[in-house]
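Minutes, project huddle
Topic: does the predicted pose make sense with NAX bound?
PN asked that the exact inputs be recorded in the minutes so nobody has to dig through chat later. Recorded below.
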Amino acid sequence: MTTPVRVAVTGAAGQIAYSLLFRLAAGDVFGPETPIELSLIEIEPAMAALEGVAMELDDCAFPLLRRMELTTDLARGFDGVNWALLIGSVPRKAGMERRDLLGVNGAIFRPQGRALAEHAASDVRVLVVGNPCNTNALIARENAREIPAERWFSMTRLDQNRARTQLAQRAGVALDEVRTVAIWGNHSATQVPDYWHARIGGKPATEVIDDAAWFDEHFIPTVQQRGAAIIKARGASSAASAANAVIDSVRSVIHPSAADDWEALGVVSAGEYGIPEGLFFGFPVRSDGERVHVVEGLDVPEPLAARIAVTRDELIAERAEIGDLLPS
Ligand code: NAX
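Predicted holo structure (tokens), as shared on screen:
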């Protein structure tokens, strides 16, 4: 029998988790042959709601779901986990400065990093979703240096999925015709949805969509502002699409990438494309099914380079602001 995969989810009573957990337990991520053990981590005020979610998971009678642990305790929650999906965080509230937000989240991600280093399985991989996800990932990772850099990720996949759909709809083609869409940088409004390298039906997107202004005036702002547009329309932030992107992100790490495509993930920079080492930066990546690496050697035209510089500088500024949360 296949060994179960143990997966920790923080923020397990939240809205993204409510769309994610049932798909995880149904086998959408690790496949129909792999049993799963869920470690559901929350803060005390949300434990009653979490009990309700667990009751619903029970009531689905998922054959693959072997065990559930509901806890507020990080040592228990991360014990032996192969994957940690760090979703819980404190969203920005009205009047909150970015610095305050980073401080509050530092208090969450620093102990989570330590607990992962001390209790997770030796092959643990970590995906940070809770915003500001690149810098939360940086805080956790800097406090868990025992876990190798290549096993840490921050989520830019929702942005990539949004970008692919915009291109497919504008070109009037099926989604799988759209390939090699990259998202560079921070998961914030400075992110760079890359149309320069995107291909549609095997041709450059800029050839297929013969409307140069559309890319800069519509495509990029639409993808950058999509989260805000969802909140305006729905009265709540993206949840099911975010959960779907978590699933896509994990799958893109554990399965080899298609020969003619790449995926979007935030990974620890090793200096690729001049990004300072150690920053979590959204890059185009490929996986061999074990290890993820940044797609190197792309030609970066000047307008793309200028946009990458803006998002790079934002991440450098975020890192400067959380200096005291990093171990010296
Ligand atoms: P919710 O507010 O519905 O749920 C968050 C949950 O986290 C709550 O149940 C809360 O009790 C829990 N929590 C808070 N602190 C915790 C801690 N220290 N340990 C464990 N649990 C804790 O938010 P939801 O809509 O699920 O979004 C979660 C996070 O994802 C937010 O930070 C959000 O901004 C971020 N997102 C990131 C995206 C990305 O692409 N990277 C896209 C979607 C989303 O905006």
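Observations noted during the meeting:
- Residues 5-154 form a domain with the Rossmann fold fold (CATH 3.40.50.720).
- The CA atoms of residues 57 and 295 lie 38 Å apart.
No decisions taken; revisit at the next huddle.
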